[in-house]
Amino acid sequence: MKLLMKGNEAIGEGAVRAGCRYFFGYPITPQSELPHYLAWRLPEVGGVFLQAESELAAINMVYGAAAAGVRVMTSSSGPGISLMQEGISFLAGAELPAVIVNVGRGGPGLGNIAPAQSDYFQATRGGGHGDYHVIVLAPASVPEILTLMQDAFDLADNYRNPVMVLADGVLGQIMEPVVLEDSCPATIPAKPWATTGSEGRTQNIINSLYIVPQELENHCLKLAAKYESIAEDHTRWESYETGDADLVVVAYGTAARIAKAAVNAARRRGIRAGLVRPISLWPFPSRALQKMARRASAFLVVEMSLGQMVEDVKSALAGARPVHFYGRTGGMLPEAREILHRLELLQEGVNSYAKELWPTASADQ
Amino acid sequence: MPKNFGRPQALTSNPFHYCPGCSHGIVHRLVAEVIDELGIKGRTVGIASVGCSVFSYNYFDLDMVQAAHGRAPAVATGLKRALPDRMVFTYQGDGDLAAIGTAETVHAAARGENITVIFINNANFGMTGGQMAPTTLLGQVTTTTPEGRNAAANGYPLRVCEMLATLEGVAFLSRVTVHKPAMVVRAKAAIKKAIQAQLAGAGFSLVEVLAACPTNWGQTPAGALRWLEENMLPAYPVGEFRSWEAC
Amino acid sequence: MVRITFRTDLCKGCGLCAEFCPRRIITRRDEFNALGFLPFEVDPGGECTGCGACALMCPEVAIEIGDAENGGVAV
What we know:
The complex is a heterotrimer.
Chain A: E1 2-6, H1 7-17, E2 22-25, H2 33-44, E3 48-51, H3 55-67, E4 72-76, H4 78-94, E5 98-104, H5 120-124, E6 135-137, H6 142-159, E7 162-168, H7 169-173, E8 175-179, E9 205-206, H8 213-234, E10 237-240, E11 247-250, H9 253-268, E12 273-278, E13 280-282, H10 286-292, E14 298-303, H11 309-317, E15 323-327, H12 336-352
Parallel strand pairs in A: 2-3, 2-4, 4-5, 5-7, 6-7, 11-12, 11-14, 14-15
Antiparallel strand pairs in A: 1-8, 6-13, 10-12
Chain B: H1 24-38, E1 44-48, H2 56-59, E2 63-66, H3 72-82, E3 87-93, H4 94-100, H5 102-110, E4 116-121, H6 151-154, H7 160-164, E5 170-177, H8 181-199, E6 204-210, H9 214-217, H10 221-235, E7 239-242
Parallel strand pairs in B: 1-2, 1-3, 3-4, 4-6, 5-6
Antiparallel strand pairs in B: 5-7
Helix pairs in contact in B: 1-8, 4-5
Chain C: E1 2-6, H1 16-20, E2 26-28, E3 40-42, H2 53-57, E4 63-67, E5 73-74
């Protein structure tokens, strides 16, 4: 069945098809269409939709349902995601699977309801307290939302870890054609650790408190090993026209779509530009970028923020190549022609100087 | 008094870490006895909160989930919605329930969530060193009210049962105390009724237990029970604030 | 015949059992237990009726009461 679907609704439909039957959340723009959708879609499949009294309550309801062994999700934006950080830290510490969707808006503080990508640090640097990571997946289209929602629930269950799907207000609101296959019921792995009542076995405890320091260190080392394994097997990105690229644009989500248009325009002008679109923001595709640095002369990171992912790009390249940045924030969108303009400037720089020399400008608005 | 009185099955054999004379031990035992008597040990999930009873998952031989401070009723909501036929209870102190957790408490009650909340009211934040709690009495000296709680600066004590009694979703609300054997027996009966109300699908149930905190009250164990009787009972009257009877 | 057992290894010497024993036959011992408390115990020869007040008040679940056949101190 082919239909036009709104991003926010695709998040919900993707979750239902992945076997999610529980949603606890709170209204906040620009994602409220998602709870609206699930309010009728979940009961249709025998699931439970509950509007919580706050995001604080919502994430803790998610925690309880996750402990019960079911597939469960929540969603929010900006201030609401900040409220959920304590709960996300607890999910990670207690090794509970859950999916949290952030449809990013302008910040900090109340910010506005326009789209932004300024929660990258919050998503990939933990966001809450303690040594942990959340797997972060960044879709760039409505069809991709559907596939990534399935992956999110699978990864969450396989690794007993929270997974964040980081979208933005553009993706939440746009409508794109999707193809919905007849779905077969999702396969959900067995969860012998869940607290379902201890009949017939010893007690299960879901907990993140390890009062003895050596025990907590051991627990954190166990989590670290898990994160290494995830990084090894589940780092994802898309490469576009990077085979012979001299200038590589790095962007994710909506910024990547705009950047792709700029890359195409650059190619038409004879500039060998390419695009790396990280799909997993954590784990970050550092190795893919390092490989590209062998051929490319410079990187241009484009974000809907003051520059957050750019730090991961710089870190990955470790000074091997210059990294430039172009971004808009507060809900403003980067423009393809501005990206093209910067690619042209970079190209001039590449033509004028030897490849080893660094251009003078490192960040422009 | 039954002739045979022993350690309930629903308790592990781990010794409690609580202070001498702390009422937590009594209430843990009562909850466990009721679970044993109702035969529901294998289908009960307890939500541990944050306070002196943070390790209650080591004491109840049940599936247990540790919740963040104040969030236990939300965690219980999520779990009960996923597993509606399990008995789900929270065990919370007054800091957890009435300070940071007020919203979660009120809304779980307003929704009529089929959970049981065991609320231990000892008029202070015990675990963190005896600070003022919303339930601290006027004039009571705590580590953050060294001159005694005064209304102008810190407002008035919160009466949780009275507050929740205004909500339709509440099935059973009772305030009890454990400062005398006869009261302990009544407290157990209230806990049993609360859990039976949940099992009957009647809605939200809560038992508020006035409890002693000898260490932070600066009392001996027996002296603390006397202090409770003289000071807490007048401020927090015992009784049923929403009644429920098994049919 | 009532059998009453005091788990003096669990006792924290709070004394609530003694406080509420109607026959005043529970007293404190002179030797510390492994926890470092002076535990309480029913006096041998005291006429325990098995009322259970002590067991109701004990926060450590350290007092067990049973029929004579089930073990414990017959008092």
